[in-house]
Amino acid sequence: MIINILAGGPEELLPELADYKEENAIWVGVDRGVFHLLNRNIKPVIAFGDFDSVSQDELSLIESQVAELKRYKPEKDETDMELALNWAIEQKPSIIRMFGATGGRLDHFLANVHLLLVPLKAKNPARVYLIDHQNIVFLKEPGSYTIEKMNSKKYISFLPLTLNVSDITLKGFKFPLKNQHISLGSTLCISNELISDYGTFSFSKGILIVIRSHD
């Protein structure tokens, strides 16, 4: 099962959602993201939010179209996206994608990047991605990984999310590395590219943010 979550970030930053409508994918709406889904003829199975970013008419449409609506007061301990992600993790999917979670307010964007840690801390095997029209963001724990070339997103960047990332090794990249140590604040691994169809990256300690992007 795949769970796609659409939040209410700037609509112009969304990718083409039709590309993610696999047969085994279900959709979840978050706040104004529910309205964006309905406008694309995608009916979410559940929706979360305080819905302070929609008009009364839009809210009436949402209430008439979504069978399970989780409404919350604006004053709460979790963001709407965190509530939706926690629900998604409980469903035990293989993949979770978060859309509409970049752009606009920087505090929300950075919080959404940090939410990628939630399944890691829960030891949940779901692969979680933060996706917009220009970027795919995900986290990796220590290990060795194969990464495939994407012509639509040729740049691959690696940023430490922890204070230190140890022994990072990049093979098959334009700028290879071997057992390199990078620390929080380093830009050493920004804007790399694969030189063949596949490459590998590995490291022994820390957590990496992996960003695939294009200009």
Task: Describe the SSE topology.
Elements (H helix, E strand, L loop, with lengths): L1 E5 L18 E6 L1 H8 L6 E4 L6 H10 L3 E3 L8 H11 L4 E5 L6 H10 L1 H5 L5 E5 L3 E6 L2 E6 L6 E6 L3 E8 L5 E7 L8 E2 L4 E6 L4 E6 L2
Parallel strand pairs: 1-2, 1-5, 2-3, 3-4, 5-6
Antiparallel strand pairs: 6-7, 7-14, 8-13, 9-12, 9-14, 10-11, 10-13
Could you describe the 3D structure shown?
With 215 residues, this protein is α/β, with parallel strands linked by helices. Helices cover 20% and strands 35% of the residues. It is built from five helices and 14 strands. The strands form two sheets. A ten-stranded mixed β-sheet has the order 4-3-2-1-5-6-7-14-9-12, sandwiched between helices. It has a four-stranded antiparallel β-sheet with strand order 8-13-10-11, with no helix packed on it. The protein is elongated and about 55 Å long.
Summarize the structure.
With 215 residues, the chain is an alpha/beta fold. The chain has helices spanning 32-39, 56-65, 80-90, 106-115, 117-121; strands spanning 2-6, 25-30, 46-49, 69-71, 95-99, 127-131, 135-140, 143-148, 155-160, 164-171, 177-183, 192-193, 198-203, 208-213. Helix content is 20%, strand content 35%.
